[in-house]
């Protein structure tokens, strides 16, 4: 197992959704979609719905030795450390402020690369 050095370059919240699209709507039926604010689109292509897949809090780390960035979802770790069910905007801003630009040590083992989340300052006592 090899030790590497890196720096946190970004921490961001990502909401993952999928959109259902209806294509090929004939001109004489387009009025049904164009007059409905829930179906944006035009020219025969309309968004008719969406599905929520979840939210992640992604930390992006630049690894110096590999000259490459890697990302991890730290949402569950933040929730456990703070004994919370959801991450407020205040908590997210605290995590970003206290960790962005921070140096971290990473481990590489074959194809797996990771780091101990305990290097992050995520416990917010507000």
Report what the structure shows.
Strands 1, 2, 3, 4, 5 and 6 form a six-stranded antiparallel beta sheet that branches. The mean pLDDT is about 95. This protein starts with a strand and ends in an 11-residue tail after the last strand. Helix content is about 20%, strand content about 45%. It is elongated, with a radius of gyration of 21 Å. With about 130 residues, it is α+β, with helices and mostly antiparallel strands. It is built from three helices and six strands. The protein has helices spanning about 30-35, 75-80, 90-100, and strands at about 1-20, 40, 45-65, 70-75, 105-110, 110-115. It has one domain.
Strand content: over 45%
Q: What is the N-to-C succession of helices and strands?
A: EHEEEHHEE
Give the tally of structural domains: 1
Portion in helices: 10-25%
- pLDDT averaged over residues: 93
Q: What class would the helix/strand composition place it in?
A: alpha+beta
Largest sheet: 6 strands, antiparallel
- Radius of gyration (CA) equals 21 Å
**Quaternary state of the chains:** single chain
Give the SSE layout.
Elements: E1 2-22, H1 31-34, E2 41-42, E3 45-63, E4 68-73, H2 75-82, H3 89-99, E5 103-109, E6 112-115
Antiparallel strand pairs: 1-3, 1-5, 2-3, 3-4, 5-6
